From TrEMBL:
Signal peptide interval: none
Superkingdom of source: Bacteria
Sequence ranges assigned to domain Bacterial transcriptional activator in this UniProt record: 930-1072
UniProt KW Transcription regulation keyword: yes
Gene3D superfamilies: P-loop containing nucleotide triphosphate hydrolases, Tetratricopeptide repeat domain, Winged helix-like DNA-binding domain superfamily/Winged helix DNA-binding domain
Name under which the protein is recorded: Transcriptional regulator
InterPro entries in the record: AfsR-DnrI-RedD_regulator, BTAD, P-loop_NTPase, Sig_transdc_resp-reg_C-effctor, TPR-like_helical_dom_sf, TPR_rpt, WH-like_DNA-bd_sf, WHD_MalT
Segments traversing the membrane: none
GO BP: any one term: regulation of DNA-templated transcription
Cited PANTHER family: TRANSCRIPTIONAL ACTIVATOR DOMAIN, TRANSCRIPTIONAL REGULATOR REDD-RELATED
Keywords from the UniProt entry: Transcription, Transcription regulation
């Protein structure tokens, strides 16, 4: 990338004359800067922000790095480059590596790259010895830049302890992190109120500093009219110094401060000589004034002397560096509007001359802005057509798009490359229909003019739309035509390499992975430069080499990103979007969800709704694999993705969410809905000839058929899909087909089919590294992993891969057993008793006898021990004789076994209920899942964890399982009373710590939620009242905090006859006296 021009005037504080007075109150506040990591100063124009900061720099004994931001710094690369150079003023060796990396960037900076730049800047600053102060003045010029905003938020979050950042802007940044920093005492905020001149300060300035004779009433009226606005007060002083009477100003009573300013500015201007007036008005078209620029634009000599004179007279001209000035923005606007109204022809001519000067000096963006101001669309079109490509590469999409929207259609017809630029921007923003229209206009004009290059890149743009949205059939014809045309233009190796890369990607999208890979190898042999759109990882994904795909993508994330090309939004190819689906295929559900969430965030940040929609469908895949989420959440994720694709008019993008819905509905035994969703997805993929995704969708339809026991339909689909996966070269797909065919053979007792397919399945598992299939839930694997176990026992019996099968059975924990029911027994005890056999919920009628259910509840409650028959009799049949109780026990036990193991062979041992002599209990090796045990595990871990963030995550995970009291239907049974109370206390302790941790993390809403949850269970839990009082106080809701204290007093007195403890009363005193509560927890 070309070097960013460094304007040294931006890296020094503006020069301040002696006439500026030190304001004691404001300067005292600024002196506390050394105690804060972040200072934010915000007010409207003319309130003296830059002046106050400059005086602070002059008066303090600290070294400050100053950066005056301009409107041309609204891209992350120039912003960071100038920031580094600002720091280098004080530390000349600072940021060498960072500058080198920034110079290497020539494309759009993506979300993951921003993280890397934050890390590099933080690490560089950490190496600076001693405290470092950085002032970013006029930050409002770049507040609209999403990349800068994101970088700033992450940078502030990880600000080194030796760094103090001072931000000055016309608007307060709307960053949520600022609230957290302020609560923690890490943010100093200086507002417009702090910058207002008080009546006393005005009196001191007028009477003592300027030695004017004004009555108290006049001073009061000056303060009333100016409202403490510094620039208006300064203009009043100038009027008084020139001997004018204030009565007209004070009696005019303007409707707004802007009216006041315009009136005063007119008065100031009218007192200048004709030559000075003319100079002021003519140079108002310039942002930065230098003698050389003014001489050129005005066609004169002597600008240097004029600028010096104006600066000495304080005519709203600020020296930003040696011989470089700028008008105060309000005064500039006043002068420029006046010039435009009085002499419009001259006004336009001045802007054109300024544009020529900037163009000759290489500042094309400023030149374009000058031309835009006077609607010189002819010359503006020329410059944008020449410079637009560079703006695209540098990621200045918004600025370029705004220029393009201004240009008339007739100018774009004359410069058709402009239509191409507009199409590129719209494609990056996922506005595919509008982008295609722009490309076609460019294509038409290129064809009519026999401009093969323009014609070719317009076709390339259209092909990229079809690559972005995975429509290989549409892309193939257009892409081949683009290649043929480009070959006629003597294109560079880089351009041809880009097109051939696109061709290889399209082959992959069409399911021709082998051809795509061989072409890529050929391209590398020819040393053709290739783009990096994660094609290699996608190639591995679509051929079943999941670990290699994951490795390639993770290495890319870990590399310094700017050692490679940095691309604009990559649609479905984004690294995190790909990692999410690969993780889901490999059963890494938590990672899959995290990557998908990152993808959504990235899509929002880079303004790519297509990427965001891809993130939503991938979250749907992830949450399907996680027991803690309801199936409705996955459905909502898929529906969100479908709605976004509908709005984008990208029909092909609906295929994958329909695939997810197909397998979701199938697992819920809703066959017709599953089939409908599958057919809809298949319609999209077959339209564009995406064989690989078509095969996956048909696999999902086959799985849905299996769940719904439609064996013949499933076998027909699997047979077809097997051939398609062979054509795609996808070993993972072939492994899945073999598993489900073996599963089908097992359940339909087709031993020949089972033997053939289980052999193929086990062979593929061993040779391709898919062992995770036995241990983790995967997108296309069984919902219940224990579905695999009976198949393994049968394979062992048939001596198929005997050694390997025995090892897998042993690793799964069933080495000492010889049979398995083929599903997981899941037991919910908190809130109500619910039993699930695999994916099938046991209904109340399935129990046959009430005592069978009660017997199971007893065994669950006493799961850590085996109960003798006599103990069971005492608990369940205390009033019966032993013989009668024994008879009742046998009936109940038989009904229980039929309920939890409906397919158990006669006289076979139970898998879930272990019998040892006359003792009975749950089999701990059966792999059953019990919600109360999981709840206890997570909450106990959270109680022991010291790190606030980790403790919060553990406790939230555990407490979410507490749906209510343990076995509420047995609330009168003595044998479960202790367990119920024990779990209640554990819940209260966990909720209390979660509330306390939330306070430490400044998450007061969460604290309030759990505090109230505690009191619903135990209204005498005093710590909950303290936490609620503190949280409401921190939320500036003191009345609510007081109400909770009074409620605490009433409850403790009524229930226990005691008063609140000292800590509670102290908290109340804090609330009432507004003392500092930072250190409560």
């Amino acid at each position: 990338m070309e070097r960013i021009p460094i304007i040294h005037t931006q890296l020094n504080p503006p020069t301040i004359k002696d006439r500026f007075v030190r304001r004691v109150k404001l300067q005292r506040k600024l002196k506390t800067v050394i105690r804060y990591p972040l200072v934010v100063m915000h007010s409207g124009a003319g309130y003296g922000k830059s002046t106050a900061l400059t005086l602070f720099v002059q008066d303090s004994e600290i070294d400050v790095s100053w950066f005056s931001i301009s409107q041309n710094d609204d891209d992350l690369v120039p912003f960071l480059t100038k920031l580094v150079h600002a720091v280098r003023i004080q530390y000349p060796n600072f940021g060498e590596t960072l500058l080198h990396e920034l110079e290497e960037i020539y494309e759009y900076v993506q979300d993951q790259h921003i993280w890397s730049l934050v890390s590099m800047m933080v690490n560089e600053l950490s190496r600076v010895e001693g405290d470092l102060y950085v002032i970013l003045d006029d930050f409002h010029h770049v507040e609209h830049s999403l990349s800068i905003e994101q970088w700033m938020i992450h940078f502030i979050e990880h600000l080194p302890s030796n760094c103090h950042l001072i931000l000055s802007s016309r608007n307060k940044p709307q960053w949520t992190i600022l609230n957290s920093l302020k609560v923690k005492g890490h943010l100093l905020e200086i507002t417009q109120e702090d910058l207002l001149l008080s009546q006393e300060e005005m009196e001191h300035l007028l009477l003592d500093l300027y030695d004017m004779e004004l009555t108290n009433e006049m001073i009061l009226n000056v303060h009333r009219v100016t409202e403490g606005w510094a620039i208006a007060f300064e203009m009043v002083i100038q009027q008084l110094q020139s001997g004018l009477n204030l009565e007209p100003i004070l009696e005019n009573d303007p409707n707004s401060l802007q009216d006041l300013f315009d009136y005063l500015a007119h008065e100031v201007l009218s007192k200048q000589s004709f030559m000075v007036q003319q100079f002021l008005e003519q140079t108002s078209v310039l942002e930065i004034l230098s003698p050389k620029l003014c001489d050129y634009v005005l066609g004169m000599t002597g600008s240097e002397a004029m600028l010096d004179q104006l600066a000495d007279q304080h005519i709203f001209l600020q020296e930003v560096s040696v011989k470089h000035y700028r008008y105060h923005q309000l005064f500039k606007s006043f002068l420029e509007n006046r010039m435009k109204e009085k002499r419009p022809d001259e006004y336009r001519q001045l802007h054109r001359k300024a544009a020529r000067y900037q163009e000759q000096n290489g500042d094309m963006e400023t030149a374009i802005l000058h031309l835009e101001r006077v609607e010189d669309y002819d010359r503006m079109s020329q410059l944008v057509s020449q410079y637009g490509g560079d703006m695209l590469k540098h990621g200045k999409l918004q600025s370029l798009y705004e220029h393009l929207l201004v240009l008339p259609t007739e100018r774009k017809r004359h410069y058709p490359i402009l239509w191409f630029y507009q199409g590129e921007i719209l494609r990056y923003w996922s506005s595919y229909m509008e982008a295609e229209q722009c490309y076609k206009r460019s294509e038409e004009l290129g064809r009519d003019r026999y401009d093969h290059y323009l014609y070719s890149i317009a076709l390339e743009g259209q092909a990229r739309i079809y690559l972005d949205t995975i429509q290989p059939d549409q892309a193939e014809r257009i892409l081949q035509h683009a290649i043929d045309l480009r070959a006629q233009t003597e294109a560079s190796k880089e351009e041809m390499g880009r097109l051939y890369y696109m061709l290889a990607e399209n082959l992959l999208n069409a399911g021709n992975a082998t051809k795509a890979e061989s072409w890529l190898e050929k391209a590398r042999e020819l040393n053709l430069p290739l783009e990096d759109g994660n094609l290699e990882a996608r190639l591995y994904l679509r051929t079943g080499r999941l670990e290699k795909a994951e490795k390639v993508l993770l290495e890319r994330k870990e590399r310094q990103p700017f050692n490679e090309s940095h691309h604009l939004p990559q649609s479905h190819r984004e690294t995190d979007i790909l990692l999410s689906i690969i993780s889901a295929f490999m059963g890494k559900s938590e990672a899959s969800k995290a990557y998908a969430e990152s993808g959504i965030h990235q899509g929002i940040q880079i303004q790519s709704p297509f990427v965001e929609a891809c993130g939503w469908m991938r979250i749907g895949h992830a949450v399907q694999l996680m027991n803690r989420y309801d199936a409705q959440l996955a459905e909502r994720c898929y529906q969100t993705s479908l709605e976004m694709m509908e709005k984008l008019n990208v029909s092909r993008g609906k295929a994958e969410p329909y695939m997810g819905l197909c397998i979701l509905y199938g697992s819920q035994y809703e066959y017709e809905k599953a089939l409908e969703a599958g057919q809809k997805g298949l319609h999209e993929t077959e339209n564009v000839k995406d064989l690989w995704l078509s095969s996956l969708i048909q696999l999902c339809m086959a799985i849905a058929s299996i769940y719904c026991a439609k064996w013949e339909e499933a076998q027909a689909k699997l047979e077809k899909v097997e051939g398609q996966f062979k054509d795609c070269g996808d070993a993972y797909g072939l492994m899945l087909v073999s598993f489900w065919r073996a599963y089908s053979g097992y359940h339909t007792e087709q031993d020949d089919l089972f033997e053939k397919e289980i052999r193929t399945f086990l062979q593929l598992i061993q040779t391709t590294g898919y062992e995770f299939f036995f241990h983790e839930r995967t997108t296309f694997g069984p919902i219940d992993l224990q579905n695999c176990v009976p198949l393994l026992f049968k394979a062992q019996e048939m001596k198929i891969h005997e050694h390997y099968v025995s090892k897998v059975i042993y690793d799964l924990g069933y080495g000492s057993m010889d049979h398995h029911p083929g599903y997981t027994l899941r037991v919910q005890t908190l809130g109500q008793l619910t039993i699930t056999l695999g994916n099938q919920v046991v209904e109340e009628k399935d129990w046959q006898r009430g005592k069978a259910k009660e017997l199971f509840e007893l065994l669950v409650t006493k799961r850590h021990t085996q109960l003798q028959k006599e103990e069971i009799y005492q608990h369940l049949w205390p009033d019966q004789e032993e013989e009668g109780a024994n008879r009742s026990f046998k009936v109940a036990l038989n009904a229980l076994l039929k309920t939890v193991e409906p397919h158990r062979k006669a006289r076979a041992e139970s898998f879930f209920i272990k019998k040892d002599g006359n003792a009975y209990g749950l089999n701990p090796k059966s792999g059953y899942e019990l919600d109360s045990a999981i709840f206890e595990e997570w909450v106990a871990a959270g109680l022991e964890e010291n790190d606030a963030y980790r403790a919060k995550a553990l406790l939230e995970k555990g407490l979410a399982l507490y749906k209510g009291d343990f076995l509420p239907d047995q609330r009168f049974a003595d044998w479960c009373l202790n367990e119920r109370e024990r779990l209640q206390v554990l819940f209260l302790r966990g909720a209390e710590k979660l509330a306390q941790v939330s306070v430490r993390l400044q998450d007061f809403d969460t604290c309030i939620y759990w505090g109230e949850s505690i009191l619903r269970m135990d209204q005498t839990w005093e710590e909950a009242y303290r936490l609620l009082m503190y949280s409401y106080y921190q939320k500036n809701n003191r009345p609510q905090a007081i109400k909770w204290y009074k409620k605490c007093c009433d409850v403790l007195d009524r229930e226990l006859g005691v008063e609140p403890m000292n800590p509670t009363r102290e908290m109340y005193d804090i609330v009432m006296s507004a003392k500092d509560t930072e250190s409560y927890v």
